[in-house]
Design goal:
Radius of gyration: 65 Å
Strand content: under 5%
Helix content: over 70%
Order of helices and strands: HHHHHHHHHHHHHHHHHHHHHH
Oligomer: single chain
Shape: rod-shaped
Largest sheet: none
């Protein structure tokens, strides 16, 4: 224990030693007190009492003098006390709210961190906005290329977009752009195929097929078939535009259009799809076992079948068979250059139509004769015995004797018209049918003459009977031989025999190019006067001489 503490215990009875132990003024006073003498120490209590009285008086005087200040100080202290209490309450409340505030600060820090990242992203986006705008405008740029027909640029742009999408598959904007580009890709495919359905040149076809190959949508066989389908649409469109007013012009134009357009399509196909084994395009074929020629030849076969259908439908309505046949034969010969000569397939079709037309014309002539003979009568009519004229200058001149009997004359005119139409295009294959049709028609004429005789012979006078005999003789001696002569003009027996490798007598036995007169006059033979049958060989020789004169 120090001296100072001991002194404080002596002076203060140990009650307040701790309070004044560290007081500087006490320490200084004690140090000063230690320097006093005894006399001064004895006087020191009195001096302290006097000084205390003086201080008390001064305090009282100060209180009286400054009582207002003390009152204000007291009030201020009181107010400060209340404010300190309020502050203490606020501080307590603050201490309660500090954890919430701390949590909110943490949340704000996290949010502000995200906002900061977004700000950085926006700043980076703003800095690269030009490049981003270019990427966003890729679909619009591709559509612009498509509108301008810049297909090479479209291919490059599509490849670039797919590369971006493949590199960044998780970025949605690239996925959207790739989807838009795929839609434009399909539009380009439709646009290219639409161009193939129009009248395009070979260089344009080469360009379109080259682009379709680079698009890698179709395999090589599919591409070939798609090309033929598209060009077939163009061909059908050309056929639909042909006017249908005149059957001959319509069919002729159809044949010409099919020939020209089909040949152009095949030329384009062969130029684009080179099937040479040394061609650089052969490696494109995925399956080496596929015969690429089957595609084009099957398509050509379908087109030729469609052409035959058109021909079979329209051929019966035409008037000039020979011109149509010339067109078709030229069509077939031109296609022989590409290995598709179909001329032999058209022969039966034309032969059938010619035969039907000939048969119909002969039947019409027979029906017309039947109408005329029903109105014709020999009763009460004068038929003067006029000497029949012969024309040695023109052997093909119809007999003048037929003019006395207008049904026979008109019938012969109709038959001559039919034979003249046949002469322009007379197939050898129907010679037997031609002869049989004419023979049946002549048999019908013979039956009609017998019917006339049966109806009127009871009323015949001598002149009427002579006139009927003259009618039958005109039919037998003039009409039938003249028709036989016309048949031999069209189908010369010598040429037919040469082609068949037989003799003329063999033709006669088989009734090839020869009418059977015995069958024709079988119904009226008993009404004809007896007459020596001429030698058929002599008649044929006469016909040969006439043919030579006609040819010369």
């Amino acid at each position: 224990m120090s001296d100072t503490e001991n002194l404080l215990k002596l002076f203060l009875d140990g009650s307040h030693s701790n309070e004044f132990e560290n007081d500087g003024h006490i320490q200084e006073y004690l140090s000063k007190l230690g320097t006093y003498k005894v006399e001064n120490l004895l006087k020191e209590p009195d001096r302290l009492k006097n000084e205390a009285i003086i201080l008390k008086e001064q305090i009282q005087e100060l209180a009286v003098t400054n009582y207002k200040t003390f009152i204000e100080t007291a009030e201020c202290s009181k107010e400060l006390y209340f404010h300190f209490n309020a502050i203490e309450n606020k501080v307590d409340q603050l201490l309660v709210d500090i954890p919430k505030f701390e949590k909110n600060c943490i949340d704000f820090g996290e949010k502000s961190s995200g906002i900061n990242d977004l700000r950085k992203l926006n700043t980076s986006t703003l800095a690269k906005s030009a490049k981003l705008l270019e990427i966003l405008e890729l679909p619009q740029l591709m559509n612009s290329f498509l509108s301008d027909g810049l297909y090479e640029d479209v291919l490059e742009l599509a490849a670039y977009v797919r590369k971006l999408h493949h590199k960044h598959p998780d970025i949605s904007i690239f996925s959207n752009i790739a989807a838009d580009v795929d839609k434009a890709w399909l539009r380009m495919l439709h646009q290219l195929l639409s161009q193939l359905r129009e009248d395009v040149s070979l260089p344009k076809c080469l360009q379109i097929i080259g682009i379709l190959r680079r698009m890698e949508i179709f395999t090589e066989p599919e591409l070939r078939w798609k090309f033929l389908q598209s060009r077939n649409c163009w061909l059908n469109h050309c056929l639909k535009e042909i006017p249908k007013q005149e059957v001959d012009h319509h069919l002729t134009k159809k044949i010409e259009v099919i020939r020209v357009k089909l040949f152009n399509i095949l030329t384009q196909y062969r130029a684009i799809f080179n099937d040479d084994e040394h061609s650089p395009l052969m490696h494109i074929t995925e399956n080496k076992n596929i015969n690429q020629n089957i595609i084009v030849f099957s398509w050509v076969k379908d087109k030729i079948s469609e052409f035959f259908t058109i021909l079979d439908k329209d051929l019966e309505g035409v008037t000039s068979i020979e011109s149509i046949m010339d067109q078709c034969m030229y069509f077939g010969s031109s296609f022989s250059k590409v290995g598709c000569d179909f001329r032999p397939m058209m022969v039966p079709m034309f032969t059938s139509v010619i035969q039907k037309k000939f048969t119909k014309s002969v039947e019409d002539a027979s029906r017309n004769f039947a109408k005329n003979i029903d109105k014709f009568t020999l009763i009460d009519k004068n038929h003067p015995n006029i000497q029949w004229k012969t024309n040695n200058e023109d052997q093909m001149q119809p007999p003048d004797s037929l003019l006395e009997f207008y049904p026979l004359a008109e019938y012969l005119n109709n038959i001559l018209t039919t034979l003249n139409n046949l002469r322009l295009c007379a197939p050898i294959a129907i010679v037997t049918d031609v002869v049989m049709n004419l023979q049946e028609s002549l048999v019908f004429i013979s039956e009609s003459l017998l019917k006339l005789y049966t109806q009127e012979h009871q009323a015949f006078t001598t002149s009427s009977k002579d006139a009927f005999t003259k009618l039958c003789m005109a039919f037998y001696d003039e009409l039938v031989p003249f028709i036989q002569k016309c048949i031999h003009v069209i189908y010369q027996p010598s040429q037919i025999a040469s082609k068949l490798g037989v003799s003329v007598n063999a033709l006669q036995k088989e009734n090839i190019t020869f009418l059977d007169k015995s069958v024709i006059i079988s119904h009226i033979k008993h009404l004809l006067p007896a007459k020596t049958e001429p030698d058929i060989i002599n008649i044929m020789n006469e016909h040969e001489e006439i043919l030579q004169d006609v040819t010369n």
